[in-house]
Design brief:
By secondary structure, the protein is α+β, with helices and mostly antiparallel strands. Helix content is 56%, strand content 8%. α28 packs antiparallel against α29 and α31 packs antiparallel against α32.
Length: 827
């Protein structure tokens, strides 16, 4: 029989996948449970990091952050922690070992031999085909991540390119995607790069070699205000019929309405036609016209193609009946099938869909609430009810409705079952239930593929890619996103392709390739800005600015945030406004524009007082930017207070997609503790980092180096910084490597070792072109080495980058006493 393992008050039963404490079940995430079992079964030896990943995830593309978070949950489940390590011991530079005493119940299963574990494959290089500060989010339904928000989430949500020579590892960072929830489509900010994956890239409108059809909102003649729904309702109905019955490639209606909402300066309908045709790549335009007759309705379809205009018309007792007759005439003339006459139920559903297209949730709710009782149990209505609840934030009700549809034993149209599965998957993503989300999106792919609806299939594959990326399954995520891109292109959904691009940017960022991320974000923005898609555009701009900062290009970050900050002023979305303001203030600080940053922060404070409903994550970012401001402006007491507030907030409500925020807080805290000579705080940083990532973390070594420096042990400080530099160079990213190198350079200023100073000067050179802190340190090194020619050039560079910063003042947190450079006038 399968064995059970008892340790202390715990009982682990691998066969039942159950952990009990004092005979009460303990909730353990699936991967954390698998790690527990593997370590317990192999308790006679230490288990290497790569071996554990291969055994539990059955792949090697797992970040240290994801592994660290999984082990953290495993430890918590058995009452352990990274500090005490009484059950799971971290073996530095190797892996983990189970150390708690075990009593085996029943016959123990023989552990598989180490050599039976598939060894990890070779680490990919920078050119490895890729499949996602933000959230993005996983940005899901038409609206994230939120964005890194993602969309939507950050998304969408979310994989990235490894650094040369090994898989990129990011301390305190897991791939959690920011999604942005808009109105109709599944939006996920995870990205795909076809030139890297071997999937052929197609120009807009070239998919399937079909001409792309653009159906415009209907013009209304003699129609009452109560029937205004027909403007978008008839448009949506005609689009659907042309696609399903006529096999035409039709521009998704969400894109048409989104673009038209963003345009307020169109001089004529012809001008709107031409602009929208350019944006979408459509080669033919269909303009519906609806007219109320004395008895019934008439709908005319004006089809413009190649300079020729043809018109078809239909009449009926109801508007959609007339529209169906017009579509029938058009398709029969083209040798096709016009489809069936719509029922009264279909017209009622179209009213709800039209309201959703317009973003008018109140009207959609009114139609749902006044639905005749005989129709309320119909799957078409139940799907709309669930979608409306989801968009209104009533996720529990939406999940119940979606699951009732997915679990129905009655035969359902594949499109309805597939959309319900997408809804369940989106809600699981929002709850970080990535395993369940992956399963539902996979089911949705299977159900929707036979329908031929490329846009819906694209959304299913996008959700699948985001869910896989959120679990670190990068190659599988890339495969799904490649399929999503292809289906979006075949369906003429350029915004869908853009959202895939945005998600790839998120993946690149999280895998430590911010330069690649910027490129992908820009591809997404090129399309989103054409469509006037404001919410997604703001999310991507915020994410791109974060990538610029991570790539040590503050000027580019500021150029991006300045546009976003100006555009967000009339937004009533507190999440987006806060996100844009925070990253804008951070970019201003990075370029030395401290006073402007203070003004932005004051504006945000006033905004937050008016909108206290902002989510905890918005508060976390707000506090971090204020810590950075306090450090730069020299307000150490305020910075200390903000730091304590942020640490308390993170303890109360921490999400794994905030690991990057925690890393940046760790850097700021080491700087603050060093400036205030608080060795206890530095010890706390070391303990926190070790608990989450392990002893072999750059931040842990940096904290120890500051402690040694404050104690006057310069040699020990230098040794620990060397260890931090080696780790940062391997897997920490450019920003962390630059931070360590400036610390090394500042420490070397106190020595007379010209050779050491020269080496560090060379290491700082790539950073000093754009980053003030690096330029200042390099200038001081060259001064110390007596190189007057180079130091004179560097002096100008320091002044260029300084902004409002005092060039005679030591930048925050460097390991040098002000008196050490007092006699080196820099002016």
């Amino acid at each position: 029989m399968a064995p059970q393992f008892r340790f202390g008050d715990y009982l682990l039963d691998p066969a039942k996948r159950e952990l009990r404490h004092q005979d009460m079940p303990v909730a353990v995430p699936p991967k954390a449970f698998d790690c527990l079992v593997y370590l317990v079964v192999h308790r006679e030896r230490a288990v290497g990091r790569d071996e554990l990943i291969a055994a539990v995830w059955e792949r090697v593309e797992i970040t240290d952050a994801l592994l660290g978070q999984t082990l953290l949950r495993a430890r918590r489940a058995v009452g352990d922690s990274g500090k005490s390590q009484h059950a799971i011991l971290t073996v530095p530079r190797f892996g983990y070992r189970w150390v708690a005493e075990i009593e085996v119940l029943e016959e123990e299963i023989e552990a598989p031999a180490t050599q039976d574990i598939a060894p990890p494959g070779p680490a990919p290089s920078q050119s490895t085909p890729l499949a996602a500060h933000g959230s993005v989010h996983a940005s899901m339904e038409p609206a994230i991540r939120e964005a890194r928000p993602s969309i939507a989430t950050r998304i969408a949500p979310v994989d990235a390119a490894p650094a040369t020579g090994g898989t990129a590892r990011r301390p305190w960072r897991t791939v959690a995607l920011l999604g942005v929830l808009m109105v109709v489509a599944l939006v996920v900010l995870v990205v795909w790069r076809q030139r890297d994956t071997g999937v052929a890239t197609q120009a807009p409108g070239s998919a399937s070699e079909k001409s792309l059809v653009l159906v415009m909102p209907a013009t209304l003649d003699g129609v009452d205000v109560a029937d205004a729904w027909m403007e978008l309702g008839v448009m949506d109905f005609v689009s659907s019929r042309l696609h399903t019955s006529g096999g035409m490639n039709v521009v998704p209606q969400e894109q048409v309405t989104e673009w038209l909402r963003s345009q307020d300066d169109l001089a004529s309908g012809a001008q709107a036609f031409e602009r929208l045709r350019e944006v979408t790549g459509a080669s033919r335009i269909v303009q519906p016209e609806v007219e109320r007759l004395a008895a019934g309705w008439e709908v005319r379809l004006a089809d413009t193609h190649g300079g020729e205009v043809r018109t078809w018309s239909g009449r009926g007792a109801a508007p959609l009946e007339a529209a169906a007759q017009a579509v029938h005439a058009m398709l029969v003339d083209r040798g096709g099938d016009g489809g069936h006459v719509p029922t009264q139920l279909a017209e009622w559903v179209q009213r709800i869909d039209a309201s959703l297209l317009a973003g008018d949730l109140a009207s959609a709710r009114r139609f749902v609430d006044t639905t005749p009782e005989a129709w309320r149990s119909r799957p078409e209505l139940r799907l709309r009810m669930a979608r409306l609840d989801y968009l209104r934030g009533e996720t529990e009700s939406a999940l119940s409705d979606y699951q009732a549809l997915t679990g129905s034993v009655d035969p359902l149209p594949p499109a309805i079952r597939g959309e319900a599965l997408l809804g369940v998957g989106r809600i699981h993503m929002r709850g970080s239930n990535f395993d369940d989300a992956e399963a539902r999106f996979s089911d949705a792919v299977d159900v929707l593929l036979p329908t031929g609806n490329d846009v819906l299939v694209g959304r299913a594959y996008t959700g699948l890619g985001v869910a896989r990326a959120a679990q670190g399954q990068y190659q599988d995520a890339l495969a799904a996103l490649g399929q999503a891109r292809q289906h979006y292109e075949d369906g003429g959904d350029r915004l869908g392709v853009a959202r895939v691009n945005a998600n790839l940017g998120e993946i690149e960022f999280r895998r430590g390739q911010p330069e690649n991320a910027v490129r992908e974000y820009q591809l997404a923005l090129n399309v989103m800005e054409q469509y006037g898609e404001r919410s997604d555009t703001f999310v991507v701009q915020a994410n791109m600015a974060g990538a610029h900062l991570a790539n040590l290009d503050p000027a580019a970050a500021l150029a991006t945030t300045a546009r976003a900050w100006q555009g967000i002023q009339d937004s009533d979305n507190p999440q987006l406004r806060s996100r844009i303001g925070d990253i804008h203030a951070e970019a201003l600080l990075a370029t030395g524009r401290t006073s402007e940053a203070a003004s932005v922060l004051a504006t945000l404070d006033a905004w937050h007082q008016l909108h206290p409903e902002a989510a905890p994550r918005a508060e976390h970012r707000r506090l971090l930017v204020r810590v950075l401001y306090g450090l730069q402006a020299g307000y150490l007491d305020e910075a200390q207070a903000w730091t304590q507030a942020l640490m308390t907030a993170l303890r109360d409500s921490y999400s794994s997609d905030e690991d990057d925020l925690a890393t940046r807080l760790g850097i700021a805290l080491t700087m603050l503790a060093s400036m205030s000579r608080d060795t206890d705080a530095l010890g706390e940083v070391h303990d926190i980092v070790t608990a989450h990532v392990g002893e072999d973390a750059s931040l842990a070594a940096i904290a120890q180096a500051h402690q040694s420096w404050l104690a006057g042990d310069i040699e020990a400080a230098g040794s620990k910084l060397e260890r931090a530099a080696a780790t940062a160079e391997r897997d920490g990213g450019r920003a962390l490597l630059m931070h360590v190198t400036t610390l090394q350079g500042s420490l070397a200023l106190g020595s007379a070792d010209d050779a050491r100073q020269s080496v560090l000067d060379e290491r700082l050179a790539p950073f000093a072109e754009r980053v003030y802190r690096a330029a200042w340190t390099r200038f001081q090194l060259r001064r110390a080495m007596g190189d007057s020619s180079t130091s004179a050039r560097l002096k100008l560079q320091v002044r260029r980058l300084a902004g409002e910063r005092d060039v005679d003042r030591v930048p925050a947190g460097l390991m040098i006493q002000p008196e050490a450079i007092a006699d080196r006038a820099t002016r």
